[in-house]
Amino acid sequence: MFSGGTRAAAAIVSAALFLFCAPAALALDRAAVESLAFGEGDERLAAIAALVAEGDPKALVVLKALAQGEMQTSGKRVFIVRGDKAVDPFTGAESALPADREDVVANNRLRATVADALAVLNLFSPERAARLASARVLAEGADAALYPLIEKALSKEKDAEIRGLLEITAAGMQLKAESRDVRLAAIRTLGRTSNPNSKTLLLELVADADPDIRREARMSLDAVEKRLAWGEWLGLAFAGISLGSILLLAALGLAITYGLMGVINMAHGELIMIGAYATYVVQNAFRGSALFDWYLAAAVPAAFIVSGLVGIALERTVIRWLYGRPLETLLATWGLSLILIQTVRTLFGAQNVQVENPSFMSGGIQVLSNVVLPWSRIYIVLFVALVLVGMWLLLSRTRLGLFIRGVTQNRAMASCVGVPTSRVDMWAFGLGSGIAGLAGCALSQLGNVGPELGQGYIVDSFLVVVFGGVGQLAGTVYAALVLGFANKLLESWSGAVLAKIAVLVFIIVFIQRRPQGLFALRGRVTD
Amino acid sequence: MGRLYGMRGWIILGAGAFSAFVVFPFFNLVVPAGHALHLSNFWVTLAGKIMCYAIVAVALDLVWGYAGILSLGHGLFFALGGYAMGMYLMRQIGREGQYQSELPDFMVFLDWKEFPWQWWMTDHFWWAAALIVLVPGVLAFVFGFFAFRSRVKGVYFSIITQALTFAAMLLFFRNNTGFGGNNGFTDFKRIIGFAITTPQTRMALFAITAFTLLATLLLARWVVTSKFGRVLAAIRDAETRVMFCGYDPVHYKVAVFTASAVLCGIAGALYVPQVGIINPGEMSPANSIEIAIWVAVGGRGTLVGPLLGAGLVNGAKSYFTQAFPEYWLYFLGLIFILVTLFLPRGVLGLLSRK
User: Measured by CB atoms within 10 angstroms of the end CB, which terminus of chain A is less buried, N or C?
Assistant: First the structure.
């Protein structure tokens, strides 16, 4: 998009060079602004160059307004729209918006030139963030005529990151230079980067007429591709871990209720959905307050408690009458799930609701130029790890955990030695449901929250538990990670839907070969 | 005959056949429209649709009620039969589609130039009929053979059948699979040369469905009262002991599972021309679980019960989704819970309580 016309770019360069040589503070050039607003074609490009040369901060304001479509005219008057006020670009005086105003129309070529002009102007800004943003824009590719300006900026720049970006930009521009040595140096510079754009630039040179250039370009290209491949693998691995952790969180509650207690809870997905809605309600309570960024601190326990209580209620009213009759439990809990879905629909409406991320969870860290790891996913991986550790501690270090394990291994014997099995069932079911609620809280940070949220996870979570081996928490962890990786790996070359189908078919075949799952409990029990 | 039903049973069946083959056609076709006693096409279609569901319910009862295998993938076999019939019906549209092409509209829309391989020979009815039986049958045979050989049973089997139908649904949602993606097949014009919307064709389809339902019921009854059926029930109650007696449960289970899937395929094939649409939504896991509740409501292991259950639940569904759409899910959910908690033998158990 930065093909604003070499002539226009050259005009900007000369204007800007003039600006930095003669820092005379002039008033905003009325003729230039007017020809920008009312002129045609090249006239307007020249006006941009003139404005860059001004050096007046007001010129920057005018260009920005043009780029954002905030510049309007009324008769012969030019003004900038700020809310419902018209601001005079020359004096800064505010007045009411005239009725007969018209937009200043900018075509693509003009927009591109303005963007380049703004980026170049920003390169000399005292603020690091502004310079960095401009350097990023220019590194995506800019007109070669801007080279002298980049050189100038490089000579003044101290910051390593910005320098790096500017060097890539400069090297990209010098690839077409006259001198062979300059070109070779540029190719080597690009070979040290890991930017997809460098790859595109180098690919053109692999077929260059000059054999030296060809050889050097090939070497640099290989280096870049190797680094990019690393990035892709890294991105894939992270996507696998991320999906695996989500599957794990969705399945972890089920690993308790199904794996340890043997209850087929088809309403598990709905407990996840309730956790997500609990998060939504807490978020609404925090909306507008200064503590909004901290709403998750309240939402996490809220989701756990609400889903846990709903789970306990289900256990006390329906499920406990069906212990030992798995197929009946399956049907009854399916009925429960329908009722829960309809209840949520009645309370919150059938439409998806909006759950906003707190600010520290938006954005991501750029590990390599082609890999960005979103913060939300990183936090969720950490969150899942915490939940896992918490659950392990609870099961292995507390009295309730001891009871749960005892009842799982031998209900009759546990009952004989005085374990209140019925109450343990209730708490264990509440724990599993509460973890489903935590999963809902995490999922609300990644995607849509709607009444059917849980339906999408129920088949997946059962498969994770069954694949890992029933009655085994460790198995569930491995199974979730393996399935997450497998899904993402297949996705990268067959598309999401086929990958999903392949994973499902794989599990179906796997269970037929090994009905006891990845890790079987050794036992002598037969039925 | 005495082995299948007693005197009362035969009388009830006869009454059912009489109403389907005489009463319905008479009040629909002979009594003129506008007359107070005229039975509108809406009711004929609704009754035909519910009878298709009843065939599926009886088929599921064969495997669940008698062999103890709860399949949550029977909706898949139903939909496969429906899709096989749908392909034939799409070919029957000919050049009357929106784009006046030999190809179905969705293929023109996707810019395809010829039929993909799956559509080979589907313009012949006999081949479509073969597919209706073969596709669900072969899939059930292969899937069942491997599952039962590995002794996958109980809830495990339910879950993997559910995964199977879920995977198939995802597959059929893709446009590239060649079955119309999201929208599936619709806008049918005629079947074996007859216009599909005339009352006569509708009544014929209705009668064929009623006949199939009766035949399914008698066949299933014949199976469960035979020695084969006894072994099935024994497998349900104590599989290990049956093995120790020298029977191989795998053969029995595969046979009954395959037969049940074929019945579902036929039901699906009868369903599509009457309802006029088939899409991948039919394969959703929720649909298959609903089939199980028809069986449970009626009373499993009774054959007639599931037929009744399919009628009751779907009758209620038609009423509720019209009158109080927002309460239907509450009602369905409650049926699931109350029937499993308080009516383990279904409505039929309630009637014959001694």
Answer: C
Q: Which residues of chain A does B173 touch, with a Cβ-Cβ cutoff of 8 Å? A: 497
- The DSSP-derived string for A183-219 is HHHHHHHHHT---HHHHHHHHHHTT-SSHHHHHHHHH
Mean pLDDT of chain B: 91
- Domain membership of residue A216 (yes or no) is no
- The contacts of residue B6 (CB under 8 Å, 6+ apart) are none
Please enumerate in sequence order all residues whose Cβ is within 8 A of that of A331, keeping only pairs 6 or more positions apart, or say none. B289, B292, B293, B296, B336, B339, B340
The contacts of residue A521 (CB under 8 Å, 6+ apart) are A469, A470, A471, A472
How close is the nearest chain A Cα to the Cα of B332, in Å?
7
Question: What backbone phi and psi angles, to 5 degrees, belong to B185?
Answer: -115, 140
CATH code, domain with A357: 1.10.3470
B152 contact residues in A (CB cutoff 8 A):
511-512, 515
The pLDDT-based confidence of A521 (bands split at 50, 70, 90) is low
Model confidence over B254-290: pLDDT tens digits? 999 999 999 999 999 999 999 999 999 999 998 999 9
Maximum alpha-carbon separation in chain B? 66
Q: Which residues of A113-134 are buried (b: 16+ CB within 10 A; e: fewer)?
A: bbbbbbbbbbbbeeeeeebbbb
Summarised one tens digit per residue, pLDDT across range B90-138 is: 998 888 888 888 888 888 888 888 888 888 888 899 999 999 999 999 9
| Inside any domain, residue A187 | no
Q: Do A342 and B326 touch (CB under 8 A)?
A: yes
| In chain A, % of residues over pLDDT 90 | 21
Contact between chains at A508 and B167 (C-beta distance less than 8 A): yes
Tokens of A163: 């320098």
- The full set of domain ranges for chain B reads 20-284
- For residue B146, the distance in angstroms to the closest alpha carbon of chain A comes to 6
- Reading the block at residue A441, the tokens are 């809280």
| pLDDT band with cut points at 50, 70 and 90 for residue A24 | very low
Three-class SS of residue A98? coil
Q: What percent of chain B has pLDDT over 90?
A: 60
Residues A456 and A358 in one domain: yes
Measuring CA to CA, which residue among A136, A110, A440, A158 is closest to residue A275?
Answer: A440
Residue ending a domain, choose from A182, A209, A243? A182
Query: Other C-beta atoms within 10 Å of A60: how many?
Result: 18
Distance of alpha carbon B86 from alpha carbon A18, whole angstroms: 75
Taking only Cα atoms into account, the Rg of chain B, rounded to an integer number of angstroms, comes to 21
Q: What residues contact residue B82 under an 8 Å CB cut-off, 6+ apart? A: B268, B269, B271, B272, B278, B282
Contacts of A500 in chain B (CB under 8 A): 167, 170
- Same structural domain for residues A144 and A241? no
Residue A224 falls within a domain, yes or no?
no
Residue A190 near residue A224, CB atoms below 8 Å: yes
Do A399 and A301 share a structural domain? yes
Q: Which of A322, A341, A511 sits opposite B152 (nearest CB)?
A: A511
What ipTM does this complex have?
A: 0.89
**3-state per-residue secondary structure call for A311-354:** HHHHHHHCHHHHCCCHHHHHHHHHHHHHHHHHHHHHHHCCCCEC
Range of the domain at A449: 231-513
Residues A154, A71 share a domain: yes
pLDDT for the residue B295: 94
Whether A518 is covered by a domain: the verdict is no
More confident residue, B178 or A94: B178
- The residue of chain B nearest to residue A342, with distances taken between CA atoms, is B329
Chain A contact set for B143 (CB, 8 A)? 508
Determine the Cα–Cα distance for residues A407 and A425; give it in Å rounded to an integer.
Answer: 8
CA dist B55 and B58 (Å) reads 5
Residues 308-327 in B contacting A (C-alpha not used; CB under 8 Å):
326
The predicted pLDDT at position B267 comes to 97
Residue type, A115: A
